[in-house]
Fold each of these.
Amino acid sequence: MTDSDRGENRIFLDEEWILRKHSLRPFAFNLMVVGETGMGKSTLLETLFNKRFDSVPATHENQSVKLKANTYELKESNIQLKLTIVDTVGFGDQIDKTESYKPIVDYINTQFEAYLQEELKVRRSLHMYHDTRIHACLYFLAPTGHSMKSLDLETMKKLDTKVNIIPVIAKADTITKAELQKFKLKIMSELVSNGIHIYQFPEDDETVAEINRTMNGHLPFAIIGSMEEVKVGNKQVKARQYPWGTVQVENETHCDFVKLREMLIRTNMEDLRESTHHKHYELYRRSTLQQMGFSDDESMSLQETYEMKKQEHNAELQRKEDEMRQMFVVRVKEKELELKEAEKELQLKFDNLKKQHTEEKKKIEDRKKTLDEEIVAFQRRKATVSAAAAAAGAHQPALAKRKK
């Protein structure tokens, strides 16, 4: 293998700068990938870092978006990288996609909150703290060739103040070069018109200003990922083979994979980390502390601010307690009124039933009296008939004797 070949397979190019910055201690880089299932996210990450990661193919049957984080220790020469990859499993698989962004935003905020809590500790150890804040977000766009989906626009709007977004067009070998160029222009136009701010490679450092300026003009990157090696000429290269030909991953005339790797890993990794801390985390920190009652007002000390916020908090608790007590009294009165109304209804029903019972009882007694009278009359008639029959029986023998 030649020196140039070894250079192509290296992940971290600026070894001297990284060693100067981080010594021999592993430094963290946290990468989030957002995109619908089947976009080739896992394949691209394996290609970027030249490593097979533990990944389970996702299905389209997820009922909600779940964030899955995996941390890997990578080492090249004297550089140690603690890489955390956060995948958005199930993104875009739901019928109702209106709130697909929420689990992602919540996850990012949770990492900010964890760092803030560590920062506010009396005895803190930030140099030993495993920073889980997201430094970059690779946002995978479907190669439609037309326009961005409303889901992507809405999600990117919610994320652009919280994370460095780097948009990429997935599976760029499925559309022609002419369509791809038009699609890139269309995406950038839609991002601007919707007020979405993506990460711009910094141009204030003279050593990288020119290349970053050029690469900013290539956004969004059209990428292809593959860990399969194909022999092209006398070299083994990563590529995807089709019946009509071979698409080389690291051939810049075929896709922007090399540009993405150069910008993300080799040139701007530290700027992504610093941008996360000084821009996105600082915005979260400032907003959170302001909500807690802290401000830049030098006329109040930290203790005074704390006491003031404590009093406000206690007053708010007292107000809520009074509201709950009043609500409880109102509810009790309402319940008492309901019970009284129910009692009235039951009493009315009871009186009606009692009246009906009395009337029915009187009817039965009247019928019984009538029946008794009928029985007495029947017995009288029966006795009369019996007496008449007996008299007739006695008269017939006497008549017979006379005839004789």
Amino acid sequence: MKVCGTWEHIPRVYKAALLSGGLRAVLTTESFPDGQLEGTIHVNELDSQEIFSAVLHSDISKLDEETASGGITMISLEKNGDIEHAIFLVKLHNVFEKYQKQLDTIPVTITVSRTGGRQQRINIINMQIIPQQATIRFRWEAMTNQELRWLARQQLSLSVNVQGALAETFNGIIKIKQTCTAFRAALSGGDALISSSTGAGGTADFSIGDNGALLYRIHIMGMSSPVTAITIEGETIKQGQIRIVSNFVRSYSDGWAEGAFHKQNTKEVEALLSNKLFINVATERFSDGEIRGQVVGEMFQEDRSEFPFLLTGSEMEPVVRTPIAGQAWISINKLCQIHYEIILHGITGNRGNEFVAVIYADTTEQHKRNLITFNRNRVNILQLF
């Protein structure tokens, strides 16, 4: 389960407490109104480098708040030439504190295993931990291509065995970084590899499924000829050569392509989280691509949680053959205020101030209202009508 929200206008005292680990999060339910889950909020030490994570559960059932324990693991990747390593940071809550007066060091065994079917141990690491040590750090050296695929497809689990008088084991499935970030792409002719001005446009949403699959939903309009390919693309391999990750054209019908991509490797996961994936739509007329756009991660916003409206020149009367396309989100609050956000893509140069957002009550000129001139390529405003 994932809970997303926005805390606005945070008082300074809470900002300071947040940075120092002085705030706790409590999850309440109808059955547990005082809280069923609780934990300290920590600053992410890996920050943007984190790619995978695991929530660690104790193998011992404990209902006592003072003895209940658990943990979290954050994982980043490090490349040295063609060799890739995984960096693990493990934080355990209410575990090592129990040993501070008993032992100088605590023996810990960390095991990475293959999940599904017959469990297979892939890597075992033994180490000694100082009780005062807040974080366990270790490296998985020289991972094989098969191990990297298992990691990217959420087919590995992590086990942390703390030995001693109060022996306890913590287990969790390694998953792609859990985040409330929305991954979106706006497709326009102006962003194509060879710019096109056909009035076509598109929008795409991506998310990570519970099983690690990359879920996609793509909507395109106004294409000048039949669609021949809808590809997700990675980084440039050589001069003029782009790595094709997959072609989604088989799932395309009547302007929509929806489905799940299950064959991702760590390259695709890293590229998604670092805004290095692109969507390209090719047609019979434009074999290299009629519209294209970059997949960008955006912070969670309630006003933009729904799939956006698509704005294209092909929807105008008469049709406008333009390289520009747009996305729009519109919502109405309890005060009858309209919140709208419009973003244009495919604009060349600094032409954003040439555009004005207009809202129509119908399709005639009689009931229209100019809202606001664009700032660069977007408008975002709350307006009372």
Amino acid sequence: MSWIRENKRSLIHDFCVRVLKSGPIPSHVVIIMDGNRRFARKNNFDRAVGHLRGFDKLAEALEWCWDLGITEVTIYAFSIENFKRSQEEVDCLMELMRKKFAQLMEEKELIEKYSVCFRVLGDWNRLPLDIQQMIAKSVAMTRNNNRAFLNICISYTSQDEICYAMRNLAEGVSLGIIDESDISESLFEKCLYTKKSAPPDLLIRTSGEVRLSDFLLWQSSYSVLSFVRVLWPEFSRWHLYSAVIFYQRNYNAVQKARTSMPTDQSQPDTDCHPVQKLSEQTAVNEPGAGKDCNRQELQAQRQERIGKFLLYLEQKDDDRIDRLLQSQDNRDDAAYNQQ
């Protein structure tokens, strides 16, 4: 099945969409697609068939989300913990990834028509090199699309993501790009895999399991959680509509909680470097306009450091994609010369 479906809605579905759109619609929905293996056992299918049916369901779910005006979807496709499964099943999942990313690149015109941006979040280094190269090509091909966003979490856990962000911050400090005193919650969030995404509004988990399984733990603090007692390949449009209604019922309470959350503050003086602390103390002791001027100068310097650091991280991501694309080109050239 194609990544993007172009089916026309029935009259009853069109009516339901209009009714749901009369209330708040989540902008960002995340889905833990659980139950593929249980679906296969339940129907006496091979596990590979269960995973394939799961992908087919994803294509349907994306269509339903975009019909509702949900512009960003994040899916938990493959956890780092999944590497602990049998080698046969892991190999099967890797092969399915190869086929689906190859299909994605074949559907370039359709994807550009709907301007869908694909992002792959997780530790790519744990994946086979050829899959890394296919991911890089898919991400590069769609990076300028901006009408809809699909974030695919592969080789991902939230604990690994948090460690990744901490390593980025430590690297920035060790290279002298930022100071320790520049680190804050907002800067930490800009170092996560999800730095380009808004926090999720609605999290859906299928199969009846009531846990997050190490998925987007930092980002989902104020998400509405909907646990659906149906296996992922059996998930229907009506289950999505029900989850959106549940979100709408809890919308005001969540918004109230979000607005009451304290805003991120700059680090207190006790967290600053001695030199910076002395500079800020000097600024406090200076009278009038001089004090304000020095304080503004220190803040401007901090913002300049943070800006350079974020550009550095963005360049690192771009360089990784460029290296993978170049290595694929070299491999293709070598294969051509051997013919």
